[in-house]
């Protein structure tokens, strides 16, 4: 249906995607295809690239910062993916915190950190926790 709209609307019909997450993790190491798989399928069929409004694109952050007084120095981006959550946080000048309960392992972080490649180092968080539950004691203060 998306392809039909795009063909009918011509080049002025905007193709918008929420994110490029290719896999969503489930318990026990299982996973399901993410929205990025659907976006890629439509992009391929339509022969055009989608405008991604979600992470890692800073579009949503800029929308929020345009409406509310967001101080990047006092804002932390918490997420479980390096290529979306942490990348966006770093690109927006936020402190970043990786939770290791998602698709990212600490060895992957260390590989990026030790790479010497600026693009890979933009995927390195400032901090990490094993689980989001590790933040509960701090949030109670």
From TrEMBL:
GO MF annotation terms: sn-glycerol 3-phosphatase activity
SUPFAM superfamilies, per the entry: HAD-like (SSF56784)
Cellular compartments annotated: Cell membrane; Cytoplasm, Cytosol
Official protein name in the record: PGP phosphatase
Entry keyword RNA-binding: no
Topology versus the membrane: Peripheral membrane protein
Top-level taxon of the source organism: Eukaryota
GO cellular component: a single term: plasma membrane
Taxonomic placement: Eukaryota, Metazoa, Chordata, Craniata, Vertebrata
InterPro entries: HAD-like_sf, HAD_sf
Protein's organism: Sylvia atricapilla (blackcap)
The keyword Metal-binding belongs to this UniProt entry's keyword annotation: no
PANTHER family to which the protein is assigned, alphabetical: 4-NITROPHENYLPHOSPHATASE-RELATED, GLYCEROL-3-PHOSPHATE PHOSPHATASE
Keywords assigned by UniProt, alphabetized: Cell membrane, Cytoplasm, Membrane
């Amino acid at each position: 249906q998306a392809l039909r709209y795009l063909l009918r609307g011509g080049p002025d019909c905007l193709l918008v995607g929420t994110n490029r997450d290719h896999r969503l993790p489930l318990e026990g190491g299982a996973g399901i295809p993410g929205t990025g798989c659907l976006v890629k399928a439509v992009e391929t069929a339509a022969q055009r690239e989608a405008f991604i409004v979600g992470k890692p694109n800073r579009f949503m952050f800029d929308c929020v910062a345009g409406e509310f007084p967001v101080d990047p120095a006092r804002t932390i981006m918490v997420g479980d993916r390096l290529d979306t959550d942490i990348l966006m946080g770093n690109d927006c000048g936020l402190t970043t915190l990786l939770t290791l309960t998602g698709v990212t392992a600490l060895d992957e972080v260390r590989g990026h950190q030790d790479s010497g490649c600026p693009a890979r180092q933009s995927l390195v968080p400032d901090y990490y926790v094993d689980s989001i539950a590790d933040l509960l004691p701090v949030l109670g203060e």
